[in-house]
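Gamma-soluble NSF attachment protein
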Amino acid sequence: MEDLEDSKIQEAVRYLAQGDKATEKNWFKKPEWDIAGQNYEKAASCFKAARSYDQAIQAYQKASDALFKSDLLFMSAKSMESAATIASLQLKQPERAAEMYKKASDLYLTHMSPDRAGEMLEKGARALEPVNVDNAIEMYVSACSLFESEERGKFAIDTFRKAAAVMIKNKRYEAAVDILHRLNTVYQGIPNQQGINKTCLSIIITLLAAEDEVEAKKQFQLFCLHAFVQSEESAIACALLDAFEQGDQELLSQIVRKQTVTFLDNEIAKLARGLQVPSDFT
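Predicted structure tokens:
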């Protein structure tokens, strides 16, 4: 095994040398950035096979830079993505991985590939979740914003839902309400009334968890100006608000066990099960 790894590293070093040679410039020769990029890619693959992961990352980064200079933007982004994946999966370096996923996102966006660009931001966010939830949330929000600005919102529904889930799990209720409202706008544009109904109920539950019963009532009234008023989700939201107003914890507990609530996204359903009527009544 060690012999194979040594052989792969030697092969990688040769590819690096060929890549460096292709970047040389003199009176008779311009840098051949595409050839350099190809050789750096091969070097990275060899380093990876030899489990020399840090060297693989450096080679992928060199490949990305060379391919960018030869206007091969998609391939440049892909090399940076490969570097980020190694940092995340093999080296368990989430901050480093997130930084490279962000660079890959920028490159994909330059290539006019917004879906891949958003995917990179989401991968960076997922890598950061266990170590820096604030930065993870920031990357999720950036991904959502990117899809919105490119008018690709319908392709980002899962991203919006994941962002809301992380926010709710970490008690960032205000941010969760904002992202759920933005998801609602996406559903309205498709249109998807079932998605709208679930999101409206999710907003009410989140506001109640944040102990903002006044805003929850206000939002419910606004939602009921539209088709939401005819839905089962609307009936559940109304019952939740009644239980809060009456200070009836037993009624509240019955409502949150209903199928309509259990069919919401996991973090929302869990949040609903933990709702408590105001302390004034208990």
